[in-house]
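Why show two proteins at once? Because comparison is the fastest way to build intuition. When a single record is shown, students tend to memorize it. When two are placed side by side, the eye starts asking what differs. So, the first record is below.
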Amino acid sequence: LEYDGEGVIYGRVAGVAQGSQWRTNVVDEGKSYLTIPETGEAFSYVLSSVHVGTLGTGQVQSAPMLARYPDTAYLAHGNYGVHYYLTLPLKNTSDRTQNIAIAFQTPVKHNQDVEQLEFLQPPDDRVFFRGTVRIQYPDERGIMRSRYFHLVQRRGQQSPPLVTIPVRPGATREVKVDFLYPPDATPPQVLTVRTLTDIEAAQYQE
């Protein structure tokens, strides 16, 4: 399907969509790891992106419909019920230990090629995401930890980090994030990785 971005209407999804999982390793191009941002900087990975709602990435994650009722959507906008699995092998290439924050956020939807996300303060009253997110990562002793978060996020809600993880110089810490995309959510969301400043790290220290 081809869209020019004008007059797009998201129709009701009714039928059978292709696939039930979205699995990806978020890594640097051509590498097996993901270099953490510079101190005080962040980057985000878009989740459940739709046409004219890719947050400038150009990536549409909506699954094609294998069978559909007449007068309904050709794509499964929102990927409702799809199990997302994301693996982030975070590598610290600096010469000091860095504290990495992982956040799940619901920015304002747009399709512009810009290098920043837009949030609202205060957020919109409408709930755009309500569901459980699991984060798994090895602690400093190498023991795998699993943490579950039930999130209720409104349109434009930035949200604080779910976890902060120290990464030693030259080390790689593999973080896994997974969740079922809720059937009443409104896409898109993002997973944000931020390297904290010393002041921020002290603020979020557990």
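Second record. Ask yourself what differs from the first in the token line.
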Amino acid sequence: MKFSLLKSASLISVILLTTTACAQQSATDTIKNNVNQAPQNSASIQSTQATSSVSKAVDSQLRQLLSQAGIKTQITSIVPSKLPNMYQVNLAGQPPLHITKEGKYVIQGELQKNPSKRVVTKKPARSSSLQVGKPVSASLKSDLLANMGALKNMSAKTPFFYTAVPGVIWGATLEGVPFLLSDDGQYITDGEISVIENGQFIGLDGNFEPLKNQAVFATLDHSQLITYPATSPEKAVIYVANDVNCPYCRRLHQQLPMLNAKGVTVKTIGYPIYEKSPEQMRAIWCQASEDGRRRAFDKAMLQGKMTPAPANCKADYVTPNREKSAGLAVMATPAIYREDGVLYQASFESPEFLEFLGVD
């Protein structure tokens, strides 16, 4: 079991909120006004696209492919998508699909027009298959942010990654809420990229997520991870996004001696989500040595007792890795990842957990 961090919310409200509580309501109102006043909302996007044409061959091919993949809902039209290299498949009574020409990659979701003024108008260089799961280039990130000026939650710390669809970028807010956007920053959706293989939907793109997560791990300051090394020959390494006040994180922590004995090294990412956790975790990370941090963390997780920060420590060693971890899109803690970037999505108290780690 995991503790849910975020309740469902509209994508535009999540992306556009400022991070200070006192500004949230006014920010939301401003965004609603911006979206309503934008040149195109999702309805007008479909209206504009309806005037565009798709060849009969492509139309027939995509209809047949989606029918074989199990789409029973009536397809009302197929038009070019505002997402690059994709077609929009409009469905009766459901959000549209966006699908690549060969029919491999599919996104379901309404597109929302970015209300920001478009500052950079040049066409971005499209990504290649070798860039999937890698952070976008510094120049593309700069251009995206320049075109997202009205989106208050966007900053230089916002993670952006190339996906398997050239021209479609994956991003996340610093709160870990993921979204997809066109590489000119003009259209945003909260959909995810699914894969059709051998005529059937096989789920989300299982290649992208691990590659992205590995890229995130590489950016972390490993000196600021609290590490519990394997106490027998190492067989697995896991990264765990943890909060000292999360009850399920504490239950996982009780299993660390067993995991270490089985050859599992555990690297803890400080990921405070409870209101009182940031300062408590800052104090733990302020301890002078790695052993001192580990002892303070154990005390918090096993006894619920928080160690105060030394009087001379005013630094915050938790937030930098917490912000870099936004690219993991943590939606619940503890979030457990293998070293290869694969997220564990079941109970860590089940036998499947050890199978996932490759230990017995």
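One difference worth noting in the second protein: Residues 21-37 form the longest helix (17 residues).
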